[in-house]
Prior knowledge:
Chain A contains no helices and 11 strands. Chain A is an all-beta fold. Chain B has strands at 3-5, 10-14, 19-21, 24-26, 32-38, 44-50, 56-58, 64-68, 73-78, 87-94, 102-103, 107-112.
Amino acid sequence: EAGVAQSPRYKIIEKRQSVAFWCNPISGHATLYWYQQILGQGPKLLIQFQNNGVVDDSQLPKDRFSAERLKGVDSTLKIQPAKLEDSAVYLCASSLGPGNTIYFGEGSWLTVV
Amino acid sequence: AQSVTQLGSHVSVSEGALVLLRCNYSSSVPPYLFWYVQYPNQGLQLLLKYTTGATLVKGINGFEAEFKKSETSFHLTKPSAHMSDAAEYFCAVDSGANSKLTFGKGITLSVRP
C-alpha cells in the first residue's frame, strides 16, 4: 500500500516569495492534515480536512497561508509571502476518519532565507 | 483543551540498557494516546497507541507503554536498547471527536555502543 506522498521534499526560497506544497494521501483516506514542525518542536496542526471540507483551520495563519483539497483527494498548501519564521518541515498526514490511525508523509522541508 | 508534556529534550542510554521516555498529558475527556518515532529526514511513524481496554500496549520494535490515568502518564519503555532505536520520539494525545493530534515537543534518544 502506497503511503502519503509529498512534494517537493526540499525547498529554499527568499523571504517574501511564495511556495506551494503538494500532498497525495493514502487511497481512500477521507481525512487529511497539514502539520508544521519547527526545528526542536513537535508538529503543530495547521489545517484538517474531511473529504473536501475544512474541519479545523484555527491555527492556520490565514494572512499568508492557504490550503485546499478541491476534489477530496490531493491537497496543496501555499505560503505567500513567506517569512523567515516559516522555515520548518510541513507534514501531510491522512486517515480513514475519526478514530483511525493517522499516517504521515516524509515531509516537505522549507528554508526561508 | 489538551496538551502533552515531555520533560527534557535528550536521553542517552547504552546499548542493551532500559529505555524510558516520559510523557504526561492533559485532557478534559478520556484520551487516546500515541507514541510516534521520527528517524532523520523521515516522517513520523506510529510506534503504538492506546484507545480503550488494556492499559499496557505493545508496539513495534519491542516498545511498550502503559496508560496510568491516576498519574496522567503514558511513558514509553523498551527493555533493551538497540543502536537502531536512535531517533526522535513524540508523544501525542487526541481527546476530540475529530481525531486531532496534539504533540509534545519530542525527545531525542541516543544509544551509545
